[in-house]
Amino acid sequence: xxxxxxxxxxxxxxxxxxxxGQQLDPDQIKNSLVxxxxxxxxxxSKVLTGFVWKTPNQVVTSLHGMSKTGTIxxxxxxxxxxxxxxxxxxxxxxxxxxxxxxxxxPVPIGVAPINNFHVGPIKLGSDVFAFGFNSGxxxxxxxxxxxxxxxxxxxxxxxxxxxxxxxxxxGFPALDLNILYLEGSLLPGFSGAxxxxxxxxxxxxxxxxxEKGASNVSWIIPAKYITELESSSVTTxxxxxxxxxxxxxxxxxxxxxxxxxxxxxxxxxxQTYADPxxxxxFEFYPTKxxxxxxxxxxxDDPENLMKFADELEGDIKITLDYxxxxxxxxxxxxxxVVLAVPVEQELIYSNEEEAFQVVSDIDDGMNIYHIGIKxxxxxxxxxELLVTVGELINxxxxxxxxxxxxxxxxxxxxxxxxxxxxxxxxxxxxANEGITGQDGLTYVVYVYMTVLMSSEKTFxxxxxxxxxxxxxxxxxxxxxxxxxxxxxxxxxxxxxAKVFKTFSATHLTTFAY
Length: 513
Fold this sequence. Notes:
With 513 residues, the chain is of the alpha+beta class. It has 11 helices and 28 strands. The strands form 5 sheets. Strands 19, 20, 21, 22, 23, 24, 25 and 26 form an 8-stranded antiparallel beta sheet that branches. Strands 1-2-3-6-5-4 form a 6-stranded antiparallel β-barrel. β20 (355-359) and β21 form a beta hairpin. α1 runs antiparallel to α9 (382-401) and α8 packs antiparallel against α11. The chain is elongated. 45% of the residues are buried.
């Protein structure tokens, strides 16, 4: 059982100490938060977060959430909608100052403007707290992030070349912009969210992040730029604004035909806000839905996925519909771990396995397990840890399947460094002999494993992938199998598509940047 592996795994890792920073009381700032709804067209609106700044009629939020053609509405204290206009724009820092339009009722009594901010250094590894409306939800929630390290702490230092080129073409945010780099990414709807230090001082504004595979490159705009925003003479959106809005990941779009505040509010309340899948230490929220190709195009590590696809098409001659493969992305909001789950399947926590598990209606032997632990791993030899974990996992599944053991496939096994104290390892192992399934077919069982290793947490995703030897013989006999036009072989194509999605979902487990 996986339970046995987990218990041994916990013993090997030997937890030392973990301390989560002091949480802020949401009641202290909830009267400063606002929901901002920006219509894009007749059918679609953006939802983001903002906060009241200095006077009850002013709101600071993210520039990239605006629209050239739409109206902007702000909900104060979850009870009063007001129409607003753009008062000031600070293009380089992706900030906008909104102002309530005249001729409306005053904003509600009790609205509490934020009047100042903190500009001192934020210690590396310290917790910071963002407050916003997850996916536009009616109630606000907190998001704990951790101050990361990038030197110099400017946007250009953080982004890979392809994203630098994109932002240069668009014109903002400025590549030399001072930023506060975060470990973890903001939830959808947190664009424009105020971010505080443990003392409750405003330190920045949530800016979302750019797509990076299954995760995001995340940062916040330092609060010092609000001063420049206030003194800006610019009141209009940039000429190439719509292009920018496609790049950011922490805003939310809703479908609506509403043309007044009451209907917009009704549409928001009717949305479904998913509960997290959680344990005491990990808390996974669904944050977005992406196709396989969207993630591959922005990923740092598509090597195994592309190699497997090439092998399927070149050697085994099976062509799959990669464009149609979609995944729900889940992010652990406390520890910065990102999971990809095929849309046809569900992420649950299994008490029996003592692990997160991806499940489906069909029991075909394909399983994905996710196991994590938080510890002080600052003195851990990650290479030795990987060997130990790999041996435990392969021994566990050899016992489950009644096999003599597994052999690591070196061609599909490698490790990448992500900063000074982070590594991700991918390990593929194949059973030493085949097994006979209940359907009479002979299966080769593969175990694929992704292990995230850092100074404070280790998280692993493990999948079992049985592949019928008869499928390989069949494709050889047919001279290939085009699963875009499967004909009578739809069942075989569906199975092989699930094989690839299981492999991909395991591989795409990653850190939230």
